[in-house]
């Protein structure tokens, strides 16, 4: 009976953590809205905020999966710079088309992921060291191939990936599709619960549960359309987050990542190929870094030698604020995305308030440590 | 002279009364053994004594030299002359022997350590104990046995009057045990009182003056060792006749399920040294094959090597159901129908911070779900079924694994492997650290599985367990197969003789 009680409490605390984070985000938004004289939550600024979240968010999704497996990648900022520079060189200097340039950027990310993953998994060099080396080396490579100069991009289609919006009507069509998907999932869940005899189905509860995401979808599209429509980078982030959610929750690969991070010995003895899975997740993060680099470069409209500096820390911070453990085995895509949104909200809000640069950094750093500290205190009490 | 008295100690945890009016005393210059099954309350009692559980979290009195003591932390207990040597060593491996002995109490001038004096004092101390250990050696370079002796030296340097030894010989070789006992005899003469906790009753009878048996948090009896016998003590420990635990079940054997020929496993660090040396054996369907041997005999290494999980080089041939197979990784072993309930569930078996479901379906995930996508509902059904089958006490498959008791955790590891539908099941120390009730359930399950036609290979350090469950017993000594007995032939004496390399 004792165990039963603890169990009930545990479930509550993990849900509690998600609610706490949403509440924290809500408080941050309300505060900024009040402090900026009702500018923060205007459609125009929200659109901007989402846009700012997109690059960090995409990196955080990949980083989360790597952190869950008990590893870390400090090189994503440099890899982002390198992949972006290669896309720009392909487009501007070599005159390759749009698609080859995009694929080149992603291929660079994957290749670097494979190299760093191999060194970590098969040569037993700690990921921290491998990617710390990568942080330096790939940045050097960026400077080398750009000759330390910014490469401008003229291709309008490429730039539109980072700068344009989808039309409001298409936005609503996507919203409708998303709502149908939510309903379909609810329906399917009810069906499997019945089919496998996993307990009683509470129909009202199920309906209420699906109302929340449907409401969020409608408000989101409405707000975005009130300005210019959903920004393309945000659409890409949503797709990536959905993919990450699917991988972590619905694939054997995702489950193995949690097992490896939770107890590498137990995972290996249960027949899991730890090394191969770690290699794969490095490659996956590399691919997502390539995607992020395209958005980043397209938004700015050029590839600078210092593009992406410190981005790795934003991505790691997003994961950690979202409840991921750097020891591995724990963390969610939802949390990482929420973490990225919190980070971007702080950036955005403080810029609106004209908080001086140095102060912004101090505040962000303090919030990161405080968030993890609170989490630890909460954990200890259990 | 009475050194220590513990009167009517009661210690409660939420929902459990771990100590229920325990009374215990210690005279100067005696070794008082404290025995009992796991979970009987031995460790809890010693934690009360040493201030790990401070005054007021328990009730009852502790008297040292007839004076009531109320420790609020470990420091205070140390100052009163109590030293505990825990099972897990608490030495800093990167520091020298001398530095470890005086850790936190280094002779110093204005914060600068006087190394010369430190090593002089350490050398004198080690000399007093007849230990030929250089105080400047790094602790990490010593064997476990010598580390244990250093730990004792450390306790004595604090002028401990009461020394608690918790399973001190678990990792010691026979000669090291002799050295240890020599030291204990010496300490007796000096008037040190010692509490000796051990599962090894042979040693308990050899070294102790008195024995106290604990069961379910109560003192069942204290008597002079010379008035007791091993059988009597065991009967007191379990509270019933030993025979009950191992139901006499005769298994019917089928065809040979697993055959191993000339298997060797080499040391990872020293590729010339064989940890498993040319072992050949087979096990049939429905048979329980026990593997006995002392620590370091190569039992776990043997299983690891067959399972494709040994990190070093291996050699030999493996046949599953008569067919030669190559097993280079655990996943290939699983594909060939071998399951492996590994030892030390916390280290090798479980994802403690994840749910029971995540643990139970891990090894069979691709069988239950599919190669790429997981299937949550099918997993839930499979997990729930195996939990019902093994009577895992937990709310639901989503319960966190670390909230379960040791016995239930062990069942989860067993369940994980049963879900892979093995033909051959390896069990390495399947009942270590779990209570008698859970042990019995696991024994019954092993018998049931054998009856259903599973071939079982079981490694255990508990001789009664190996003898009670196995149809046949193999004995390993220094990596070599030194004996084989059928259930009827085997006696504890014969098995021990082979395990220690005698004939």
Tell me the distance between the termini of chain B. 45 Å
Major beta-sheet overview of chain A: 2 strands, antiparallel
Q: Give the number of domains of chain B.
A: 3
CATH domain topology of the largest domain in chain A: ABC transporter involved in vitamin B12 uptake, BtuC
Order of H and E elements of chain A:
HHHHHEHHHHHHHEHHH
* CATH class (first level) name of the largest domain in chain A: Mainly Alpha
Oligomer: heterodimer
Enumerate the spans of chain B where pLDDT stays under 50 for 5 or more consecutive residues: none
Total beta strands of chain A: 2
CATH architecture of the largest domain in chain B: 3-Layer(aba) Sandwich
* Strand segment tally of chain B: 22
Regions of chain A with pLDDT < 50 over 5+ consecutive residues? 1-12
CATH topology of the largest domain in chain B: Rossmann fold
Q: What is the CATH domain class of the largest domain in chain B?
A: Alpha Beta
Q: Give the neighbour order of strands across the main sheet of chain B.
A: 6-9-10-3-11-12
């Amino acid at each position: 009976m004792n165990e039963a009680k603890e169990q009930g409490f545990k479930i509550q605390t993990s849900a509690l953590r998600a609610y706490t984070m949403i509440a924290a985000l809500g408080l941050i938004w309300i505060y900024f809205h009040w402090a900026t004289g009702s500018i923060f939550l205007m459609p125009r600024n929200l659109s901007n905020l989402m846009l700012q979240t997109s690059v960090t968010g995409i990196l955080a999704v990949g980083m989360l999966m790597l952190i869950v497996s008990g590893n870390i990648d400090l090189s994503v900022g440099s890899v982002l710079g390198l992949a972006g520079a290669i896309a720009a060189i392909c487009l501007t200097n070599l005159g390759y088309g749009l698609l080859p340039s995009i694929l080149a950027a992603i291929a660079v990310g994957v290749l670097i992921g494979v190299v760093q993953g191999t060194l970590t998994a098969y040569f037993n060099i700690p990921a921290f060291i491998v990617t710390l080396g990568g942080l330096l080396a790939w940045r050097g490579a960026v400077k080398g191939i750009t000759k330390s100069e910014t490469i401008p991009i003229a291709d309008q289609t490429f730039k539109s990936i980072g700068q344009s919006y989808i039309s409001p009507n298409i936005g609503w069509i996507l919203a409708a599709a998303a709502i149908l998907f939510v309903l379909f999932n609810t329906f399917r869940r009810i069906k499997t619960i019945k089919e496998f005899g996993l307990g009683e189905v509470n129909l009202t509860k199920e309906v209420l549960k699906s109302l929340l995401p449907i409401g969020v979808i409608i408000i989101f599209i409405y707000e975005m359309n009130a300005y210019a429509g959903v920004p393309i980078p945000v659409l890409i982030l949503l797709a990536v987050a959905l993919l990450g959610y699917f991988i972590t929750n619905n694939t054997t690969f995702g489950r193995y990542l949690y097992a490896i991070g939770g107890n590498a010995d137990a995972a290996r003895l249960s027949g899991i190929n730890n090394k191969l899975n770690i290699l794969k997740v490095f490659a996956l993060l590399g691919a997502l870094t390539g995607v992020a680099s395209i958005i980043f470069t397209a938004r700015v409209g050029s590839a600078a030698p210092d593009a992406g500096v410190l981005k790795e820390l934003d991505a790691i911070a997003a994961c950690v604020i979202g409840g991921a453990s750097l020891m591995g085995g724990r963390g969610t895509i939802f949390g990482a995305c929420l973490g990225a949104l919190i980070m971007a909200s702080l950036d955005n809000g403080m810029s609106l308030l004209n908080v001086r640069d140095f102060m912004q950094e101090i505040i962000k750093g303090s919030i990161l440590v405080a968030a993890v500290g609170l989490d630890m205190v909460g954990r200890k009490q259990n | 002279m009475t050194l220590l008295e513990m009167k009517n100690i009661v210690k409660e945890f939420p929902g459990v009364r771990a100590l229920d009016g325990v009374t215990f005393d210690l005279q100067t210059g005696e070794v008082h053994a404290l025995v009992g099954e796991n979970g009987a309350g031995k460790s809890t009692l010693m934690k009360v004594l040493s201030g790990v559980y401070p005054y007021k979290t328990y009730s009852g009195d502790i008297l040292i030299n007839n004076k009531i003591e109320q420790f609020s932390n470990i420091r205070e207990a140390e100052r009163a002359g109590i030293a505990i040597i825990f099972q897990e060593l608490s030495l800093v491996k990167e520091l020298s022997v001398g530095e470890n002995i005086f850790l936190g109490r280094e002779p110093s001038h204005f914060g600068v350590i006087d190394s010369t004096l430190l090593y002089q004092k350490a050398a004198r101390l080690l000399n007093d104990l007849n230990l030929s250990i250089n105080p400047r050696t790094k602790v990490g370079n010593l064997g476990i046995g010598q580390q244990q002796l250093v730990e004792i030296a450390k306790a004595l340097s604090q002028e401990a009057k009461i020394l608690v030894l918790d399973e001190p010989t678990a990792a010691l070789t026979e000669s090291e045990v002799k050295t240890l006992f020599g030291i204990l005899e010496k300490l007796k003469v000096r008037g040190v009182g010692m509490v000796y906790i051990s599962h090894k009753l042979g040693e308990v009878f050899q070294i102790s003056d008195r024995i106290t048996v604990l069961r379910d948090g109560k003192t069942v009896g204290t008597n002079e060792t010379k008035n007791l016998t091993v059988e009597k003590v065991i009967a007191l420990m379990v509270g019933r006749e030993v025979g009950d635990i191992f139901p006499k079940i005769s298994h019917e054997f089928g065809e040979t399920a697993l055959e191993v020929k000339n298997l060797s496993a080499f040391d990872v660090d020293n590729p010339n040294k064989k940890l498993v040396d040319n072992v050949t054996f087979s096990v049939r369907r429905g048979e329980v094959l026990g593997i006995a041997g002392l620590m370091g005999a190569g039992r776990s290494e043997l299983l690891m090597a067959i399972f494709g999980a040994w990190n070093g080089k291996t050699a030999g041939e493996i046949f599953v159901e008569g067919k030669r197979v190559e097993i280079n990784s655990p996943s290939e072993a699983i594909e060939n129908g071998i399951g492996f309930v590994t030892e030390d569930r916390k280290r090798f078996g479980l994802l403690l911070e994840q749910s029971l479901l995540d643990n139970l379906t891990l090894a069979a995930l691709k069988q239950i779900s599919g190669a790429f996508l997981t299937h949550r509902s099918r997993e839930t059904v499979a997990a729930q079924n195996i939990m019902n089958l093994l009577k895992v006490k937990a709310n639901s498959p989503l319960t966190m694994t670390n909230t379960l008791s040791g016995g239930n955790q062990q069942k989860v590891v067993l369940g994980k492997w049963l879900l892979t539908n093995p033909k051959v099941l390896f069990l390495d120390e399947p009942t270590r650290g779990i209570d008698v009730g859970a042990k019995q359930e696991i024994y019954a399950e092993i018998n049931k599985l054998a009856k259903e036609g599973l071939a079982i290979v079981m490694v255990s350090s508990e001789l009664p367990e190996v003898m009670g469950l196995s149809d046949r017993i193999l004995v390993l000594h220094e990596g070599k197969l030194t004996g084989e007995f059928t259930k009827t032939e085997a006696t504890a004496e014969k098995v021990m003789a082979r395990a220690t390399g005698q004939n």
